[in-house]
From TrEMBL:
Protein name: Trichome birefringence-like N-terminal domain-containing protein
Similarity field: Belongs to the PC-esterase family. TBL subfamily.
Subcellular location: Membrane
Membrane topology annotation: Single-pass membrane protein
Record domain Trichome birefringence-like C-terminal: where: 82-367
Keywords, comma-separated and alphabetical: Membrane, Signal-anchor, Transmembrane, Transmembrane helix
Keyword Membrane in annotation: yes
Amino acid sequence: MAGFSFRRSYQHYAFYLVNSLFILLISFFLDDTHARIVNVGGNCDFYKGSWVYDESYPLYDSLQCPFIPGDFHCVANGCDPPRFDGLDFVKRFKGKKIMFVGDSISNNQWVSFACMIHAAIPNANFTTYHGIPMASINFTDPDHNISILFNHKPFLVELEEIPERILKIDNHKPFLVELEEITERILKIDTISTGDPWKEVDVVIFNTWHWWFHKGKIQHWDKIHEGNKTYKDIDDRLAAFAKGLTTWSTWVDNNIDPKKTQVFYQGISPTHPKGNEWGFPHTTCADHRTPINGTTYPGIPEPGVAVLKEVLSKMSNPVILLDVTTMSQLRKDAHPSYYTNQGRTLRDCGHWCVAGVPDTWNRLLYASIVCWPETRTHRIDMNLPILIT
Ligand SMILES: *[C@@H]1O[C@H](CO)[C@@H](O)[C@H](O)[C@H]1NC(C)=O
Ligand SMILES: *[C@@H]1O[C@H](CO)[C@@H](O)[C@H](O)[C@H]1NC(C)=O
Ligand SMILES: *[C@@H]1O[C@H](CO)[C@@H](O)[C@H](O)[C@H]1NC(C)=O
Ligand SMILES: *[C@@H]1O[C@H](CO)[C@@H](O)[C@H](O)[C@H]1NC(C)=O
Ligand SMILES: *[C@@H]1O[C@H](CO)[C@@H](O)[C@H](O)[C@H]1NC(C)=O
């Protein structure tokens, strides 16, 4: 199955977050009309901590982990996040669907999630379909009947390819005018028209981020369409991201029934192309084999996080943010670059090895799902080590 690479090398790179460090929790308190993000902070800051080397921790084998209690009384347990229990998840979600929507980082988390489920039910039958934009990994046994879906939708808003005819004038033959067919890519920044499948699933995890910042040859649009206007570009890409994200948040508030579908946002996934951010100039992620010590990233904070939290805070749908940015910033060592290309001609410091950091995101996703009723009205209190691969 796709995504199982790095398991061997990564068996020696398992880490856990220790509880003596703080635990960060973004939780949502609901009142009748409005949801807002509440950063509970204090000793229960679920997403903060440091990575600790732990050779004893086997990959995708959390059931064997002796350190974690196995029940789900999220609030009663003090500060204890439930472990990822794939069997429990499959039982809870029998006949149901979970969908990751977004870019290749969403794909990363989707693959990790499917691996974690597969590890829990290794003998279960499954089918895979790697379609674009919709892909699926379905476990099909009657008792283990769950769909794990991926919708490739890197902007969440619509990117349309519109065929267009332009006049082609060849300077060497000025009297011969031809019509040439080209494709124009229009980013419809205020439009979501293909979101129907998102309403039909039980859990949906959205993400959009890095495509907004691609410029030059790798830019994904030719023009932007907004209202009745089409224009060339938005120079301030963070502003463009905010606009697209607001289109998404409005769509979710108007279209997704929170009683049927739990909505999550993946959080901004950091990249590590420049070692000067963490004190190692002239290096990239490919030169690093260990996480950054401690609980804070020495580089500049990711400005998108504030934009994201601002947009989420205005939503009426109780969307839960997987606030993974800081913890992932500490993992400069966890990108595929070093492992896939030791010659270092190609340095992927954006995606993540699987098994690896996305497993941790999925553990937090699982904890949030299991604790869902509590996360709506209480904080999730957590107090034991978070085991991380
Ligand atoms: C899986 O679950 C769905 C919904 O409960 C049901 O319609 C379908 O028949 C199930 N499939 C199998 C193979 O059990
Ligand atoms: C997996 O299940 C989904 C519905 O949950 C369905 O749309 C998709 O076609 C299925 N994929 C395969 C490969 O059977
Ligand atoms: C998996 O599928 C095979 C072939 O259809 C079937 O014989 C087997 O019982 C299935 N496994 C389970 C655990 O249901
Ligand atoms: C677009 O133009 C139409 C017709 O002129 C108008 O009715 C509509 O309100 C406009 N929409 C927006 C978003 O400006
Ligand atoms: C990080 O911590 C480890 C263990 O305490 C230590 O061996 C290592 O030198 C530290 N690395 C840096 C860059 O401070």
